[in-house]
Amino acid sequence: MIRLFTVDLCLLALFALGFSASAQSNYTPGYLINLQGDTLRGLLDDRGEAKNASEIRFKTSADAKLQNYLPTDLKGYYSSNDKYYVSREIAIEQGNGQKQPTAVFLEQLVKGRANLYYYKNYSDEIRYFVEKDTSGLMELIHRREHVHVPGQKTYERNDKRFLGLFKYLFSDCPTFRIEKYQNTNLELADVTRIVAEYNQCLSPETAQESTYVATKSKKKLKAEFTAVVLLNRATMVVAGYGTELPNPQQVWKYGAGFSINLFSPNMNDKVSLQLDAIYNTKGATSAYEARRFNFTYLDLSLLVKYHYPKGVVRPFAGAGFVYGTLLNRESAYTRKRSDGQQVNIFPPLSSLIGNEMGWCLDGGIAVPFSTHAVLLGYRFEKTETVSPIQDQFYRNQVHQLRLGYTF
Predict the structure, then answer these.
(1) Residue of 222, 288, 281, 209 whose CA lies nearest to 251
(2) Is residue 289 within 8 Å of residue 321, measured between CB atoms?
(3) Contact 332, 293 (CB under 8 A)
(4) Residue 377 maps to which CATH number?
(5) How far apart are CA 240 and CA 253, in angstroms?
(6) Which helix (H) or strand (E) holds 195?
(7) pLDDT at 279
(8) Positive or negative: CA dihedral 263, 269, 273, 279
(9) In a domain, 121, yes or no
(10) Does residue 387 belong to any structural domain of this protein?
(11) pTM for this predicted structure
(12) pLDDT tens, position by position, 150-206
């Protein structure tokens, strides 16, 4: 049983990896600026802030060959979703703990007499940099440290040295007063406002034309809730010891529950992590001793899902794992005695007997309207169930028709 289940998991993992990789593409019109200053227009693959900072995938048309560009290959690039990136060198900590100058793509938040840049790495660390025509690239620093004074309480030291840098760089603006920003933190909205106001100060008559301010909002984790009802039909195979039991006949059963799709701001917005909690019934019958399988489970599943975001009808697909807790241990597996009474076969030995574990593939379509959607889907599940009989187990292959409503 373990060997067969392990093979299934390996195959599912390979499928999920390939599926996840292909699902990450998100092409938008844009252009590259090469090292000679030439512009090359085409389609850019927006794969999230961390990926965009390390490399950009580009092709000249939908059918053209995809190419990867590093920060050392370009001066910068622009995508039609209002994102400018420029190639710059910043100090990045290496594996040995030492910081080394490394070329990256910095997202430009403000452009003018002073430029503001944003960088985010794979560890979700966010850094900001400012640059003027009279100075090079300089990082904005804000440190919070807990300091313990012997005999006194521990207190937090708030080192807002980025305000001192702004004071130094923006001293040529006669109306700039750093005291105005003493309660400011190193946050996106705050630093963007400071740099934009400085540009307005130096060039008030041309500020609208000369200053670009990115419309960048702080992304949050997005959750979608879906109520689900379903019909399923299980093909049960008894394997191991006691295989003299003929394969049971299929029986239609039902289920209901809910799903939560989580869309991370750090991933492509077409990909979600789906969590399911389903009250599910699965059954079968066998002529041998009039045996009946009537399993009632609380099925918990975890899937990686891809959602096509456009059109009146929007396909989706996913793959993941499922674990079911048996709720009706006293009546899940019965047989008919010689006196005609149907009796339970599961002994009260272990709470794990009858629980199922396996994998699933999921697909279907969503029809959106307003802020909601109706979903019609199909799911295939393959699970294994521990038997009360030593060295025997049941393998379930379940076909489900699902109807959902997202709100």
Answers:
(1) 281
(2) no
(3) yes
(4) 2.40.160.20
(5) 26
(6) helix 188-202
(7) 94
(8) positive
(9) yes
(10) yes
(11) 0.54
(12) 777 776 667 788 888 999 999 888 888 888 888 888 888 888 889 988 888 877 665
Q: Which of 38, 41, 45 is nearest to 73 (CA)?
A: 38
205-263 pLDDT, tens digit per residue, is 655 544 556 666 555 678 899 999 999 887 776 665 544 455 566 678 899 999 999 98
Question: How far is the C-alpha of 276 from the C-alpha of 259, rounded, in Å?
Answer: 4
Helix locations, 205-262, DSSP H:
207-210
Which DSSP symbol is given to 49? H
Overall number of domains in the chain: 2
Same domain? For 184 and 201 the reply is yes
- Compute the residue count for the chain: 407
**Dist CA 106 CA 108 (whole Å):** 6
Are 312 and 367 members of one domain?
A: yes
Distances in whole angstroms, Cα of residue 109 to Cα of each of 129, 182, 192, 193: 10, 22, 7, 10
SS3 354: coil
Closest CA to 69 of 35, 27, 36: 35
**In the Cβ-directed half-sphere of 384, how many Cα atoms lie within 13 Å?**
15
Q: Which of 213, 247, 267 is the last residue of a domain?
A: 213
DSSP per position, 283-351: EEEETGGGEEEEEEEEEEEEEEEEE--SSSSEEEEEEEEEEEEES-TTTSEEEE-TTS-EEE---TT-T
Q: Which two tokens stand for residue 275?
A: 């969590």
Cα 65 → chain centroid: 27
Task: Tell me how far apart the alpha carbons of residues 107 and 120 are, in angstroms, rounded to a whole number.
Answer: 9
Answer yes or no: is 368 within a domain.
Answer: yes
**Are 88 and 129 in contact, with CB atoms under 8 Å apart?**
yes
Tokens of 393: 């187990």
pLDDT for res 214: 63
Parent domain of 248: 220-406
| 90-143 pLDDT tens trace | 999 887 778 899 999 999 999 888 999 999 887 778 899 999 877 889 999 887
Phi, psi of 170 (to 5 degrees): -100, 20
Six token digits for residue 49: 């802030």
DSSP single-letter state for residue 219: -
